[in-house]
Amino acid sequence: MDVEAAARRWANVLGEAWTAGDVEAFVALYADDALFRGPFGSPEPAIDHMRRALSHGEPGPDVWVGEPLIVGDRAAVEWWAIIVNEGETKSFAASAWLRFDADGAVVEEHDYWQSAPGRREPWPGWGR
């Protein structure tokens, strides 16, 4: 399995699928039993979390995804999104820590994020 190819596919599909509202294209990158953990929560099925998270807010969020960093069977990918929910704009900046199986499917994801009210776009050179 090529971890770099799997991580780049994950990064590309995240940006494209989230913006287009194609949640199923993104969750297809996960193993059926993959786990997701946020900074303070208990593990939960990753597919359930992604379906909920990518459906949050109005359609067509602005999404940026950085270049993956690869170590062994893991990758770290930064992402940034601006979401409008019930008329309020909120900016999210995050890092996803991913582990892949032999077929390149995500089996584990840990995310750390911060959010702020309003529209805050990434700074020049972000994500490289």
Assembly type: single chain
Low-confidence stretches: none
Number of strands: 7
Return Rg in Å. Answer: 14 Å
Secondary structural class:
alpha+beta
Query: Mean pLDDT, rounded to whole units?
Result: 95
Backbone shape: globular
Give the count of helical stretches.
3
* Helix proportion: 25-40%
Our measurement of the CA-to-CA distance between the termini, rounded to an integer number of angstroms, reads 24 Å
Order of helices and strands: HHEEHEEEEE
The largest sheet is: 7 strands, mixed
Strand residue percentage: 35-45%
Task: Record keyword descriptors for this entry.
alpha+beta
Could you explain the architecture of this structure?
The chain is α+β, with helices and mostly antiparallel strands and 128 residues long. It has 3 helices and 7 strands, in the order H-H-E-E-H-E-E-E-E-E. The protein has helices at 3-20, 23-27, 46-54; strands at residues 30-37, 44-45, 62-65, 69-71, 74-85, 88-100, 106-117. Strand 5 and strand 6 form a beta hairpin. The radius of gyration is 14 Å and the shape is globular.
What's the SSE blueprint?
Blueprint: H1 3-20, H2 23-27, E1 30-37, E2 44-45, H3 46-54, E3 62-65, E4 69-71, E5 74-85, E6 88-100, E7 106-117
Parallel strand pairs: 1-7
Antiparallel strand pairs: 1-2, 3-5, 4-5, 5-6, 6-7
